[in-house]
Amino acid sequence: VDDAHHAHHVADAHHAHHAADAHHAHHAADAHHAHHAADAHHAHHAADAHHAHHAADAHHAHHAADAHHAHHAAYAHHAHHAADAHHAHHAADAHHAHHAADAHHAHHAADAHHAHHAADAHHAHHAADAHHAAYAHHAHHASDAHHAADAHHAAYAHHAHHAADAHHAADAHHATDAHHAHHAADAHHAAAHHATDAHHATDAHHAHHAADAHHAAAHHEAATH
């Protein structure tokens, strides 16, 4: 589907008549189509014998006579051709994907039932499309603005994520400090413990030698007596 302004230029064989530029593609002027003479709102209500298909039969009820609703498909098959500008270009199923284009329904060209929208200027009723295309264009921009807002929120989320990372980094920093402090405390106690042990060991060593010297002296004294 082309952009909103040009989507009704559907390219399939049934719709070759969408070939010209958006404003003029369907304003063909050949003699067979004097019915293009009606006013812009009703041009597609062609009155000549070639266009009896604009009649009201069940297949084509959607050719309602008032310009705003002429091609607002009226039956279940085309219900998804919602007419409001917001949904016009949200093409519905594969059958109608190329209908996306003109805000109010790019003239239902797509399925076999509507081949009568065929390929020539017979369809001056495409004249209202330019008007609706502007709606689609605005709806598209409204949609862009909506996505832009989403992008804005995404940026917040992105920043919030980094803020959370920074927060965790700070936690990790404190955890590291705590870890080091713990080891420092261990080292301190270990040093104090060894210092105490060394002190006692020295005392014990001296006491032992003092005792030995004392006994040795006593022994020697006893021997000389």
TrEMBL record:
Stretches for region Disordered: 1-225
Pfam families the UniProt entry points to: Plasmodium_HRP
Basic residues bias: start-end ranges: 69-80
InterPro entries assigned to the protein according to its UniProt record, in alphabetical order: Plasmodium_HRP
UniProt feature, compositional bias: Basic and acidic residues: 9-68, 81-132, 141-153, 162-225
The name this protein goes by in its record: Histidine-rich protein II
Species of the source: Plasmodium falciparum (malaria parasite P. falciparum)
Lineage: Eukaryota, Sar, Alveolata, Apicomplexa, Aconoidasida
